[in-house]
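#struct-help
A.M.: can someone run this one for me? Single chain, 547 residues.
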Amino acid sequence: MAKMWNRRFLSITALTVAASLSITACSGDNGNKTNTGGADKAGANKGQGSNVNTEGEMASSEPITMKMMGYKHPIHGPWEEMIFFKEMEKRTNIKFVFDTPPSEGYEEKKNLAFASGEVPDVFFGANLTPGEEIKYGSQGVLLPLEDLIEEHAPNIKAMFEEMPDVKQSVTTPDGHIYALPHVNKASIAVAPTTWVNGDWLNNLNITELPTTVEGLYELLKNFKDNDANKNGQADEIPLGTNNKMKDFHSVILPAFGVWGREVYVDDDGKVHYGAMTDGYKAYLQFMNRLWKEKLVDPASYTDTFTEMSAKGKENKVGMFVHAAPFLGFKVDKPEDNLKYPVLPALSSDINPTNTAAISAGIVRGVFAITSQNPDPVRTIQWVDYLYSKEGSIFVHYGPEGDLWEYADKEKGLRKYIEPANGMNTEEYRGTLTPDVGTPLPKWVRPEVERGWDDVGHEHRFKETEEKIMPHARLPFPLIYFTAEEQDQIDVISTDLKTYLDSMEAKFITGQESFDKWDNFINTLKKMNIEQYVEINQAAYDRWKAAN
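D.P.: on it. Structure tokens below:
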């Protein structure tokens, strides 16, 4: 039972893998579709299909079959066997034929689907890029959704009305909405958290956590030099990571006054490229200092998450960046979470303001209706249910009484039911719904995210809201480029990120001397980084004017 309750948080952190997901082309032939009223697309089906009220009840219409393409995470069972789709079919009489490839080759297969015209009726959890939305929306492959939403999607419409920034973030420069988002703005979903080993703090009689990068260095050095785990061996890893140091872009880099390694905007509305700044250089020098003194895991560039987590559970890691303590420390019961505090937002000599970078809480491009779809009205009604409170719980956790039940329904507090099949919670949830490791279209309200009868869960909220959110900065809003701008961005970006990742690793590990910094900056300039910034500035200015 102790291992069961703590798996539910994986779905939050798993959104970070969305950019590397993959998908396979699916035939657009209508031969196996049962169309109840013609395929006149977004405008012609008005009045058809079932309606969804605010309580999430969906009336059935005649049976219809559609093709759905979506990313199958390794933890997923077969989509056709999931209770989510079975129950949704009962509600709507819409049956899906699934094409759910794994991550390998995702971009290639998705591109093939678009290039061949053999797209599915529905993209679901599909990781469409902003460029793809604009390109294939303007070509008519992806249908504009705004009229469908206005007339047939009350939950999505309510979300847009309550959070206008969400609507703005998914509206392309031509005024259309071609894809729907995943929305979760709860603090623990948008803020980075660095969890500190409370046992080590107690062993060394440390009662106060640092708020500066120099204080962080001293704490890490204390961990390493004083046998923090008290096992008599020099096996401490003061700072753990498994993501090639990218975890620290949101928790350490902002302390140097750089809110993003790539583009970010300052208080005056000026766009910067983080890697071109003196603050980024200072950050790399600080990380190089940690590397040379073995204060950060030497396996940072090779370890998987599982390997990093195993070290933490063996009490060898002093702190790590992730969504919850149990992901990297030994936690046998909910109360154990309470001994692991969050490292506060940091400052530095360069930036005296404590700062942490957060995300927008919006994942774009997770759902789209294509020109092959035989009934866009019923399809938008189908997905609209997931934006209701009831629907968001259903798609994420499955039906009440299976994996979860109410601990206090009046207060909206839920608790997990331990799976009887030997699976942990996330493994079992992955057999019920694809909303595990794959961002899906839904609106997660704060009270739903918070609605667990669990002291460890509340501890995460308390630590995040006290130590991170008061110092949070969103580096850059979610924007769209024009088609011409997108083409230019694509050309510049082709080699830019690869070069930047490579040079960052070389500077941190000492393979490249900081004497070569000017060469690094000049190379970025030759890669047209100044044009890249100018394009982002123009797009930001349009976004700001419309905000």
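A.M.: thanks! DSSP finds 21 helices and 14 strands in the chain.
D.P.: also worth noting: The first strand starts at residue 64 and ends at 69.
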